[in-house]
Amino acid sequence: MNELTLGIYILIWPALTLGILWVICRAVWKDIKTAKKEKRGLV
Questions:
Q1: Which of 13, 28, 30, 37 has its CA 20 to 30 A from that of 22?
Q2: pLDDT in tens, 4-34
């Protein structure tokens, strides 16, 4: 493996983690908005 490939391999994991965190936060935000609209608790 050359250095560029190894660098990309190492840096892809934080990018994937950030993407997954963004998807989870967006889903929670959507649930909060829906719960407020329906005037019920989130849990």
A1: 37
A2: 999 999 999 999 999 999 999 999 999 999 9
| Dist. CA 7–CA 17, nearest whole Å | 16
**Taking Cα atoms as reference points, which of 24, 4, 9 lies closest to residue 32?**
24
3-state secondary structure of 42: coil
List the structure tokens of 20: 């997954």
Distance CA 1, CA 9 (A): 10
Confirm if 42 and 31 have CB atoms less than 8 A apart. yes
Nearest Cα neighbor of 34 from 26, 22, 19 is 26
